[in-house]
């Protein structure tokens, strides 16, 4: 283990050396994990997105320890004191480090960014608002101790009042705040009563907001046109290139390809790789006010290889997962499918 000296006290750190450096982050894998160039670019883009949306500046470099979700590292660094199952990632305030597997990266990076203003009753809410999981609406009226963790409410607050105002509310509401403290902070920062705020939220919030993380593609990634309801694409997956991303499964890598679906209907996508897994997800340009028919499973659709799904017209990202290894060129095809 490494040791960090802080105010005369030694704080233990994971024993791993930095293997990757991005514009904002020093990344130290805790095992033989690779962090593909696309994922590194995606992290920096996410940080810049959050700094812009919330009106923040970053005064330090971030330190991330990347863990295998099946290893004991997450138990050691992110486990609960009662021995219960740890989360797949955590931000540790005392040592200012992120310890995480791949999937929670955007959530933990939000913590690392917003800590520039300290901790807050809204701490989990803002991280849930901009994580890799679409936050679910919470329109129930009245006080709830867990309301500060609602990612959907926090996202609406950012959209309604702006990021800088949201961060003033964040800074004004200490962690563990009771009902009176939260209501006072809302009244002083936003100028409304808490119950009235919840009523406006339930009446005006969108069901789903655009998701920057899930719809990221590497800058310069080309988009192929459709011709007569058919689409073709060729891509070379190489972990050293920004068009290739680390996967939640450490033994696989992912390509992220922009696809604009020309009209609503059933589509099928195939790849010329026997072990390819295909997923597709819509990328909203505007908030969606109506509930989505799939509820919790939205937005990602499993296609497998050759599988199909009814898709909306508009921009999507096609994810192609294959086993990690030597650089591999894959050809893909999509077509409008009459069922």
Description:
38% of the residues are buried. The protein starts with a strand and ends with a strand. The strands form four sheets. It has a five-stranded mixed β-sheet with strand order 3-4-5-7-6. Strands 9-10-15-12-13 form a five-stranded antiparallel β-sheet. Strands 8-16-11-14 form a four-stranded antiparallel β-sheet, with no helix packed on it. The chain has helices at residues 37-54, 73-78, 105-114, 123-129, 151-161, 163-172, 179-190, 194-204; strands spanning 2-6, 9-13, 20-21, 25-29, 62-66, 89-92, 97-100, 230-237, 244-246, 252-261, 265-271, 277-282, 301-302, 308-311, 314-323, 328-336. Helices cover 25% and strands 26% of the residues. The chain has two domains: 2-204, Neutral Protease, domain 2; 230-336, Jelly Rolls.
Topology:
Elements: E1 2-6, E2 9-13, E3 20-21, E4 25-29, H1 37-54, E5 62-66, H2 73-78, E6 89-92, E7 97-100, H3 105-114, H4 123-129, H5 151-161, H6 163-172, H7 179-190, H8 194-204, E8 230-237, E9 244-246, E10 252-261, E11 265-271, E12 277-282, E13 301-302, E14 308-311, E15 314-323, E16 328-336
Helix pairs in contact: 1-3, 3-4, 4-5, 5-6, 6-7
């Amino acid at each position: 283990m490494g040791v960090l000296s802080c105010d005369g006290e030694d704080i233990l750190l994971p024993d791993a050396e930095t293997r990757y450096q991005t514009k904002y982050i020093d990344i130290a894998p805790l095992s033989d994990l690779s962090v593909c160039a696309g994922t590194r670019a995606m992290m920096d883009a996410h940080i810049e997105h959050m700094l812009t949306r919330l009106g923040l500046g970053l005064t330090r470099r971030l330190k991330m320890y990347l863990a295998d979700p099946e290893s004991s590292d997450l138990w050691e660094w992110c486990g609960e004191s009662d021995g219960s199952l740890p989360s797949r990632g955590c931000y540790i305030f005392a040592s200012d480090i992120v310890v995480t597997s791949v999937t929670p990266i955007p959530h933990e990076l939000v913590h690392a960014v917003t800590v520039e203003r300290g901790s807050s009753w809204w701490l989990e809410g803002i991280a849930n608002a901009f994580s890799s999981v679409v936050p679910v609406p919470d329109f129930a009226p009245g006080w709830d101790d867990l309301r500060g963790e609602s990612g959907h409410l926090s996202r609406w607050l950012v959209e309604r009042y702006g990021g800088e105002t949201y961060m003033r509310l964040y800074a004004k509401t200490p962690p563990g705040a009771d009902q009176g403290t939260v209501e006072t902070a809302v009244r002083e920062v936003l100028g409304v009563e808490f119950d009235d705020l919840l009523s406006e939220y339930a009446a005006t919030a969108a069901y789903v907001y655009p998701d920057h993380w899930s719809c990221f593609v590497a800058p310069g990634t080309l988009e192929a046109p459709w011709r007569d309801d058919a689409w073709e694409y060729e891509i070379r997956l190489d972990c050293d290139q920004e068009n290739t991303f680390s996967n939640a499964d450490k033994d696989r890598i992912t390509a992220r390809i922009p696809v604009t679906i020309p009209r609503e209907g059933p589509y099928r996508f195939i790849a010329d790789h026997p072990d390819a897994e295909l997923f597709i997800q819509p990328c909203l340009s505007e908030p969606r006010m109506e509930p989505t028919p799939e509820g919790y499973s939205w937005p990602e659709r499993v296609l497998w290889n050759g599988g199909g799904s009814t898709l909306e017209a508009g921009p999507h990202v096609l994810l192609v997962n294959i086993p990690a290894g030597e650089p591999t060129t894959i050809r893909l095809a999509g077509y409008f499918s009459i069922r």
